[in-house]
Amino acid sequence: MGRIFVFVNQKGGVGKTTSAINIGAYLAEAGQRVLLVDFDSQANLTSGVGADGSKPGIYELISGKNSATEVIQETSVRNLFVIPASIDLSGAAVELVEQEDRDYYLKRSLDSLRDQYDFILIDCPPSLGILTLNGLVAADGVLIPLQCEYFALEGLSLLLQTIKRIQKGLNPHLDIAGIFFTMYDQRTKLAQDVVRQVTAYFKDRVFKTIIPRNVRLSEAPSHGIPISQYDALCVGARSYKSLAEEVLNRGR
Length: 252
Description:
Pfam families: AAA_31
Organism: Gracilinema caldarium (strain ATCC 51460 / DSM 7334 / H1) (Treponema caldarium)
Number of helices: 12
InterPro entries: AAA_dom, DNA_Partitioning_ATPase, P-loop_NTPase
Domain AAA: 3-176
CATH superfamily: P-loop containing nucleotide triphosphate hydrolases
Number of strands: 7
Structural class: alpha/beta
Protein name: Cobyrinic acid ac-diamide synthase
Helix content: 40-55%
Radius of gyration: 17 Å
C-alpha cells in the first residue's frame, strides 16, 4: 500500500511546489509509481509538469463529478502521474467550509488510489486554510520545506501547532515525515544559524540533504518538466536526487 505525503508551508515562495515536482520525479525515475496531486488553485504544480489544467482535475474528483481514472494525467517522466488543479479549486474551498465532513473529501478520494501507487504527493496552497487541512487529514506524513531565513522559524512554530491539532482529532496517525532546507546560501550566517537551530531541535527528523539556491531550478517549471529532464547535472538536480533517495528510504 502506497504512502501519502503532503508538502506544507503556509509561507509562499519556499520551494514547496518545486520540491513536490522534483522529489516525485526522482522517485519515479527510481522505479516508484508516483502520483502528484495539485491541491492549490494557483495550479503551479500542474503547469510545472506540463499537465493540462483545462481538463477535469482534483476539484472534479473531490466533488464527485469525475472518477480518478478520468482526472489522472501522465507526465513526461515514466511512472510519474498527476491530478491537475485549476482556479475551480478556489470554489471548492468555499464548498468545503459549508460541509460537516469538510476535512475528509480529499482523504476519501486518495485512499482509493493507495494500492495503485507507491507514493502519493500532495502539494497544498501557502496557507493553513481548509485545503491544507484536507491535505493534512489525507496524509500519512508531512514534508516541510523550510527556507533559511528568520521568519521561517516563526512560521514553523505555527505549522507545528496546526499539525498537533490535526493529530489530536482528525488524523492521529499523521507524522512529521521530515523537514528539509531550501534556497540555502552558505555565504550567509543567518542561513547557517537556521540550519543549526532547526537541526539541533528536530534532530533526525531533518533530512541531511540541503537544497541550495539554483537558477536552473527556477527555470525548469517554465518548460513544464522537472529538473532531472531540464538539467540533470546542475547542483539543484543533484541535491533533489539525493533528497528523493532519503524520502524513499524513510517511506519504506
